Amino acid sequence: MNKVTLSNIEIIEIPKIEDPRGNLAVIEKEVLPYQVKRVYYLYDVPSSAYRGGHAHKEQLECLIAVSGSFEVVVDDGASKQKITLNKPNKGLLIPTGIWRELENFSSGSVCLVLASEVFDEDDYIRDYKQFLDFKNQ
Question: Residue 108 region, left (φ>0) first, then alpha (ψ -120 to 50), else beta?
Answer without folding.
Answer: left
